[in-house]
Design goal:
Layout: H1 13-25, H2 39-52, E1 58-61, H3 65-75, H4 78-97, H5 101-126, H6 132-155, H7 164-171, E2 176-180, E3 183-186
Parallel strand pairs: 1-3
Antiparallel strand pairs: 2-3
Helix pairs in contact: 1-5, 2-7, 4-6, 5-6, 6-7
Length: about 190
Amino acid sequence: MTELRLNLGSFNQSDRIKQISAIFNSVDWFSNVGSDASDSIKSLVHQHLDRLGCTASSIRVVSDIRSLEDYIRNKFDPDWMEAENAAYQDLLGKVNESQITTSLDEVMPQIVTQLSSAVLNYSENRLPVRDQFLARVAAGSATETCYRYAMEIALDSSEPGTFASKFEVFRMGRWPLCLSRQEYIIY
């Protein structure tokens, strides 16, 4: 895994948008959903969970759309969701303490607008959905992860951030879904 790093302070606004957009545009969104998880994907999932302070006894690949819908609507672990939200709040605190808040405020709206449209298009075309619900949930999850990863990139830390490994799972064409009953679910 090659982690992408970018210090926003060293670029003008136009260059910032191009650099971050290039990172996200390099992703082949949802191209491998439903297929077996490689050891590298499993390792990335465990890294993400470790950074959240969560554990999974196994990683389950969901390959059918009905099971996917069921996990989204009913089966995610609220403690995992709370850990994701706490990590995000911690990240926001670090961003607010840094000197990059203004830079992010200038750059991120344009990036998120471009990204969300592109990811939604991929999700609608690659996911076997019967309704728009799953396509929008997938696009929202990917966009949210990218936004959080962009903040980690902007902080330019020497250590990988909490959302770097989750982004890498998306980058490998998968949809990292949730933790459910000590299993991490990937589509």
